[in-house]
Design brief:
Helix content is 49%, strand content 9%. The protein is an alpha/beta fold. Strands 3-9-8-7-4-5-6 form a seven-stranded mixed sheet. Strands 1-2 form a two-stranded antiparallel ribbon. Strand 4, helix 11 and strand 5 form a beta-alpha-beta unit.
């Protein structure tokens, strides 16, 4: 075990070193499968590249596949991690991170795919995919994961229509809803947003993972699978800001979404953000996504704007109405999309204040930050072998720019903030509980002077 900057002892990072662990199976099986699909996608689009770019397009396709095949071989044979050579803006921070890893390892063992932190090598694979494409203009702007993301959106149409229809029910009566009714609407949309995280293409290695059933009707049955539910603390944070505004205080409350997957999950994020605006729980929403294609289905700027456009032109009255409203929010500037290189680096979030001070300062201006999904949870808690009963705020290791909440369905073998005995009971009932996406958490933390109000300390 190592000591962190606060002097506390922290457990080691999860790693493929542990044969049979989920990290090991991911590096051995899932990552090569994803790389194979990337190669297949590029090869399938060979004719498209030829039509657009002629012989240059064919050459770029071959060269990219060659680099990706080399990458797959390095991964499968546990070769050392090597520095990036593409000269892009984020290459230096990535290479410095590698040097830090090498320094930490000393001469004990090489920094390689199976011996290094799982969080690092998995992030590194996606950065190397970007390198392979970026080194080969004219296809250097190609999104190899776009097909899966658009397919996920279109195959979830029925669920999206149901969600937009439910929203319309709120819209019709929003001037007359009581505080209790408002909280009930909030809880339902927060939980839909939570379970939207099941639609993750990286965990299914790119297989279909769209939403086929009504997201509202399934909530009651899913409630029992939420292991920690701090919904009330999230509501209190938002509602108190709304009450202050009603009392004439000149405050503008802002909620930030640190996004995860495109497709149906992004629609649930947009629906929740729309509700926050419509109900006066927020006056401004900032969305944080990825600056390049990442973890198969993560949201980029193109995905964000494409999803709003597609919702707007849908052949369904309430769906197109919501899309038009979302576009209006963007046009007015009360919704904004941001990306930052830090989101596509391997750092744990406790590094953010030091390594991305500008981003940390941006998040400090929010009244609430919602972190969506599994990768964000792994970065929040450092992807370490924590005991399940360790408090959420302990695992954050000093990270707390603003009140924050993690909405996550479990797809990696890390989970903190559980009651004593809860983890062992789950393990005996369902050995795959941490990785199946069947279970979920809504975990809240309020930093600084109000720390005593945090659910962990009540």
């Amino acid at each position: 075990m190592a000591a962190d900057h606060t002097g506390d002892v922290v457990p080691p990072s999860l790693s493929a070193k542990v044969v049979g662990s989920f990290a090991y199976l991911t590096v051995r099986d899932r990552l090569p499968t994803i790389l194979t699909k990337v190669v297949d996608t590029i090869h399938r689009n060979k004719n498209k590249f030829f039509e657009e770019y002629g012989e240059e397009g064919i050459r770029a396709e071959k060269q990219t596949i060659s680099l990706l095949s080399k990458l797959r071989n390095e991964l499968q044979t546990d070769k050392p991690i090597i520095a990036l050579t593409d000269g892009l803006d984020d290459a230096d921070p990535w290479n410095r991170y590698l040097q830090r890893q090498q320094w930490q390892h000393g001469n004990q063992e090489v920094v390689s795919w199976f011996k290094s932190p799982w969080l690092y090598v998995e992030c590194y694979m996606y950065r190397r995919i970007r390198e392979a494409i970026s080194l080969n203009p004219p296809i250097s702007g190609y999104d190899v994961f776009n097909e899966g993301k658009t397919q996920s959106f279109f195959e979830s149409q029925q669920a999206i229509m149901t969600l937009c229809t439910y929203f319309e029910g709120f819209n019709k009566k929003r001037e007359d809803v009581s505080e209790n009714e408002l909280q009930e609407y909030f809880n339902k949309l927060l939980h839909v947003c939570l379970w939207g995280n099941k639609c993750d293409l990286s965990i299914s290695a790119g297989m279909d993972n769209s939403q086929k059933i009504s997201p509202i009707d399934s909530l009651v049955a899913l409630q029992t699978f939420i292991l920690v539910d701090d919904s009330d603390a999230v509501w209190s944070t938002l509602f108190s800001a709304r009450q202050q505004k009603k009392a004439g205080k000149n405050i503008s409350s802002r909620v930030d979404f640190v996004l995860d997957n495109a497709g149906f999950e992004l629609v649930t994020d947009l629906a929740l953000a729309d509700f926050l605006m419509s109900s006066g729980l927020a006056q401004e929403v900032h969305f944080h996504g990825k600056s390049f294609p990442w973890f198969v289905s993560d949201v980029t700027a193109e995905d964000f704007h494409w999803t709003i456009r597609q919702t707007m032109v849908a052949n369904h009255r309430w769906m197109s109405q919501r899309g038009a409203q979302w576009q209006q929010y963007v046009k007015e500037g009360v919704w904004s999309y941001h990306d930052h290189p830090f989101w596509t680096q391997p750092n744990e979030f406790c590094d953010m204040a030091a390594d991305a001070a500008d981003l940390y300062a941006t998040l400090q201006a929010a009244d609430l930050v919602l972190f969506k999904g599994d990768l964000n949870y792994r970065k929040l808690a450092g992807d370490r072998d924590w005991d399940h009963t360790v408090a959420f705020d302990t695992a954050l290791r000093g990270f707390g720019p603003a009140p924050l909440c993690s909405l996550r369905t479990l797809k990696a073998n890390i989970q903190v903030g559980l009651q004593p005995g809860q983890g062992s009971k789950l393990s005996s009932q369902d050995p795959d509980w941490m990785t199946s996406g069947k279970y979920a958490v809504i975990q809240f933390y309020r930093p600084n002077t109000d720390q005593q109000d945090s659910p962990q300390n009540q």
